[in-house]
Automatic annotation (TrEMBL):
<feature type="domain" description="GMPS ATP-PPase">
    <location>
        <begin position="2"/>
        <end position="200"/>
    </location>
</feature>
<keyword id="KW-0547">Nucleotide-binding</keyword>
<keyword id="KW-0332">GMP biosynthesis</keyword>
<keyword id="KW-0315">Glutamine amidotransferase</keyword>
<keyword id="KW-0067">ATP-binding</keyword>
<keyword id="KW-0658">Purine biosynthesis</keyword>
<feature type="binding site">
    <location>
        <begin position="29"/>
        <end position="35"/>
    </location>
    <ligand>
        <name>ATP</name>
    </ligand>
</feature>
<protein>
    <recommendedName>
        <fullName>GMP synthase [glutamine-hydrolyzing]</fullName>
        <ecNumber>6.3.5.2</ecNumber>
    </recommendedName>
</protein>
<comment type="pathway">
    <text>Purine metabolism; GMP biosynthesis; GMP from XMP (L-Gln route): step 1/1.</text>
</comment>
<comment type="function">
    <text>Catalyzes the synthesis of GMP from XMP.</text>
</comment>
<comment type="subunit">
    <text>Homodimer.</text>
</comment>
<keyword id="KW-0436">Ligase</keyword>
Length: 326
């Protein structure tokens, strides 16, 4: 019989035993999984935990501030922020193959955590003592789809599973590894996390990097960030946030089509809207969003995002497509 309180009590005891006196860091992404994982670990070991938020330059509009303020306000957990955007963008330069992007991003995250270690040690006042553990909010579906489940195929390397480098020095603490998202949300609520964290829609760790089809540049990221912010704003205004699982907004950077804007010919890229409904992300259906909401999103994106002259809707379920395009 599934019970959130039992799982919390079990995990807290397990984590306490595993960690002992050591320092622990947790990579925070802004999403519900890492927030719940961090809160569980904090419950177990208090100030031995420091969260690290990596700004990899692939975030959505306003996301970094949200994490820095909302999460800390809700939990009181120690947080350090690392701006690694130049570093990530440099490493991703010219890369367009999805698995290659994912491996680079997974590796960069770990290297950034390794560097952040020093700061954690200094602040903890325990110079010389290594940070032994890294907490990740890995869920059961992430493990399965990264090829970590029994005999499962590698569909895509989730940044915190198949995307990890082989020589990770940290021992991993993954208290959510056997759970599905709805269970994680139940645990988060039970521990008192606010609704706007618990009900945040999923956003992948590799961020907008896997929503630009083609190679990643600063200009493309800025363009996609704007389009994504418009779609999110309109979906929220229409009160649809809890009706859909998530709505990836994807830039087909290497596709061009002809348009006419302000009496002039344009030759721009399309934006894809990918609204989906799902229980656990293992399967999904495309969401039948109201036409007027789609129309508003389309009008605003083509008016406000210079270089976008077409908005298209993805009407494929999973399978055969995955939710994200890469
Ligand atoms: P797919 O595209 O595999 O996505 O159907 C299933 C769910 O997982 C999210 N996703 C990720 N989350 N790291 C994450 O933290 C990743 O590398 C990653 N890849 C996909 C995706 O947004 C969807 O909710």
């Amino acid at each position: 019989n599934w019970d959130a309180s039992n799982i919390i009590a079990d995990q807290v005891a397990k984590i306490r035993q595993q960690v002992g006196e050591h320092q622990v860091i947790c990579g925070l992404s802004g999403g519900v999984d890492s927030a719940v994982a961090a809160t569980l670990v904090h419950k177990a070991i208090g100030d031995q935990l420091t969260c690290v938020f990596v700004d990899h330059g692939l975030l959505r509009k306003g996301e970094a501030d949200q994490v820095k303020h909302d999460f800390v306000a809700a939990t009181g957990i120690k947080l350090i922020t690392v701006d690694a955007s130049e570093d990530f963008l440099q490493a991703l330069k010219g890369v367009s193959e999805p698995e290659h992007k994912r491996k680079i991003i997974g590796e960069k995250f770990i290297r950034t955590f390794e560097k952040a270690q020093q700061q954690v040690i200094e602040e903890a006042g325990k110079t010389g003592k290594e940070v032994k553990f890294l907490v990740q909010g890995t869920l059961y579906p992430d493990v399965v789809e990264s090829g970590g489940g029994d005999g499962a195929a590698n569909i895509k390397s989730h940044h915190n599973v198949g995307g990890l480098p082989k020589d990770v020095k940290f021992q991993l603490i993954e208290p959510l590894r056997t759970l599905f998202k709805d269970e994680v949300r139940a645990i988060g609520s039970q521990m008192g996390l606010p609704d706007d964290i618990v009900w945040r829609q999923p956003f992948p760790g590799p961020g907008l990097g896997i929503r630009i089809i083609g190679d990643i540049t600063k200009e493309r990221l800025d363009l996609l960030r704007e389009a994504d912010a418009i779609a999110r704003e309109e979906l929220s205004t229409a009160g649809l946030d809890r009706d859909i699982w998530q709505c990836p907004v994807v830039l087909l950077a290497n596709v061009h089509s002809v348009g006419v804007q302000g009496d002039e010919r344009t030759y721009g890229s399309p934006i894809v809207l990918r609204p989906v409904s799902s229980e656990d992300a293992m399967t999904a259906d495309w969401s039948r969003l109201p036409y007027d909401v789609l129309a508003r999103i389309s009008t605003r994106i083509t008016n406000e995002c210079r270089g976008i002259n077409r908005v298209v809707l993805d009407v494929t379920s999973k399978p055969p497509a995955t939710i994200e395009w890469e």
